[in-house]
Amino acid sequence: MSRSGIIRSGFYICFMKKILLGIVGLLFSLGAFAQKDSLALDENNKYIYYKTAEQPGAVADTLYDRGLYFFKKAYPAKALKLTKADKDGNALTGTGSFLINKKGLVGNSEGGEMAYTLRVEVKDGKYRYWLTDFVYQPYQRNRYGNVEFMHGKDVALEKASEKLSKADFNTCISQVLVNSKHVGDSLKAYMLKTSSLEKHDVKKVKRVSTKEW
């Protein structure tokens, strides 16, 4: 082999090594992400998406007001609504739902809805939140071709593996994780900005009397 051929071969081997290392790094990053951001089981063996967040400089009252504003403004009431506001306990609770798609032979279709409970708790400089109580509500087509709930077929996510095919269950779990992360990201954005519920300094207004003039 000529010297130029050896050089080209060396460059090719070096190039391929870089690609291989890049692929390995990408797979490692994806694996680390999957381990870091995933569903877990709580003390009651229920699926839960649990996160804590630091927010230095923000007092509990401020974070509570921002969390309350999130529940009232971030989503339509059908998608998420506040069910309990505990000011003394610095906690907010709501219920919501998101769409679950089902894979078919020719594409995705609306499989049903996943109902859930969202809990937000705040302290000075930090807050935590979790989604749990996941219940799958499957759809069916009525005689007019419209989707509607299959009454009496609701199933807790913990039991869904017994009711759904393996492929549908795995798809369901994946979409629960994606949608839970989306809710969490939306909450984080609201926790960073001033809400209209926060108290602001009010300028003193001069008082006048109409009794004397």
Automatic annotation (TrEMBL):
Q: Domain of life here?
A: Bacteria
The organism's taxonomic lineage, starting at the top: Bacteria, Pseudomonadati, Bacteroidota, Sphingobacteriia, Sphingobacteriales
InterPro entries for this protein: DUF4468 (IPR027823)
Q: What is this protein called?
A: DUF4468 domain-containing protein
- List, for all copies, the residue spans of the domain called DUF4468: 49-137
